[in-house]
Amino acid sequence: MKRINIIILVFIAIAIAVLVSFMGNLSTYETIASARQKEGKSVTIVAKLDNTQPIEYDPAKDPNYVSFYVIDTLGEKAKVVYHFEKPYDMDKTERIVLKGKMKDGVFDITQKEGILITCPSKYKSDPEYNKKKLSQNQ
Fold it and tell me: Checking CA distances to 10, which of 24, 73, 105, 131 falls within 20 to 30 Å?
């Protein structure tokens, strides 16, 4: 083999190795039911806060314990335990992205970055506001 062919083959092998390593980091969103099937494995769930259940947080008792319930897009409910302080404006959120493990039917989050609270959109359509702005522009 020529030297150039060997260099090209090595380059191709390195490119394949890099692509395979990036594919290992790709994560998909799971439902609560699929997270229960993958108990003990780290998964990511997108859900909304269940406002019919109270958020359990007592900083005097344990400032690093928050528990609450979420509902996924299929309507499945689960209890979530977060082992850090309660996120700011948690009760005002529309969606919550959770990364953790299911243990005994409870979604357990042990990493600070394991919860992402999405803010309510400030760009929601308000018909009265839109009418007012439209009339001012004319």
Answer: 24
Q: How far is CA 40 from CA 54, 91, 131, in A?
A: 26, 27, 52
pTM value > 0.85: no
Separation between Cα atoms, residue 90 and residue 55, nearest integer Å: 9
- pLDDT tens column, 67-118: 999 999 898 999 999 999 888 888 888 788 999 999 988 999 988 888 888 7
Query: Which string of DSSP letters, residue by residue, matches 50-114?
Result: -TTS--B--TTT-TT-EEEEEEETTS-EEEEEESSPPPTTGGG-S-EEEEEEEETTEEEE-SGGG
* Residues 6+ away with beta carbon under 8 Å from 131: none
Map out the domains of the chain as residue ranges.
Answer: 26-117
Between CA 4 and CA 1 the distance in angstroms is 8
Identify the CATH homologous superfamily for domain 26-117.
Nucleic acid-binding proteins (2.40.50.140)
Pairing of strands 96-103, 106-109: antiparallel
Q: How confident is the model at residue 51 (pLDDT cuts 50, 70, 90)?
A: confident
